[in-house]
């Protein structure tokens, strides 16, 4: 029976090319936008290179001073000293990495200026992150203790600075702000949207201008705590919060006293939401997700309403067919399921075109250079979400007209 319904749907599509084009165009365009958006969100918040362990990582990205009513606040990254004292000392994690927020500098080769993104890290950074080394290796704790002027660069900088001469670059020098650094490793670059790993050149934190010796709680560093297992994350947060609670209050910042100190070790998505909402209360999260859900529903609902009108017109032309089938004893339930299955089939057909179009758009984005090292993909998560959207979209735009037409009386259907 299902196969017969699909065959009927295919014949209907061929019978009215204009309605078919309008229907498939609306479905394909809407689903293409949703697929590309889903792919981009997965690119931002999913577990991808080089942060392949993000699912079992916690991020300490900001130190916030505020008053008891939380009307006045001062917020910024943590200092290296603070993270060493309160994050590196944790017993539960497997590793704790410390790295700076990315900075900027310049290098010159043959009179040509190269703008560089820079990052200062400790040795554990290379254990917490899964960078692919194309040449050499990361700097070690011994390099850091010795104050060696060594760096790790990306493949893009290797090509730009050494002009892709085909020779290995390990052991060769790069001059940055009149200081010579020896290249110790070359990695495949991280996408620019992964702000805690993206850079052109990576320095040991003991390199000049790292400001790792700054006193106080605030500075220019973030901590990334790697758990042995995902189930250890709550225990790590509890241990970290226990240490933070022992910091003497009030905190003095530029002569102003703040009685409340907020420092959290959050999952990747959570710490972005906390920064956006400025409050991690359940009420604010509920409001945020409600608004996001409403926007998504409206985005899908408006095209669905238009498709409902198209489907009503398309099905109305088949009223005589409905009347004849009812006259021969076809129950309303059978007609209802026939039209729903037809509409879901048409929606999935539009989803197929949307999938092909989304793939083409994603390839254009990845190769365009708009996002450095962009690696958007239609992976299993994106594909599954897209298929669920197709199913929901098909039901949303097909149930109402199908129900309306299945309830037609025989006489009314034959008059149409």
Automatic annotation (TrEMBL):
It is found in: Cell membrane. The keyword Ribonucleoprotein does not apply. The chain crosses the membrane at residues 21-41, 286-308, 335-365, 377-400. Residues 294-408 form the ABC3 transporter permease C-terminal domain. It comes from the Bacteria. This is FtsX-like permease family protein. GO terms for molecular function: transmembrane transporter activity. Residues 20-240 form the MacB-like periplasmic core domain. InterPro entries: ABC3_permease_C (IPR003838), MacB_PCD (IPR025857), Macrolide_Exporter_MacB (IPR050250).
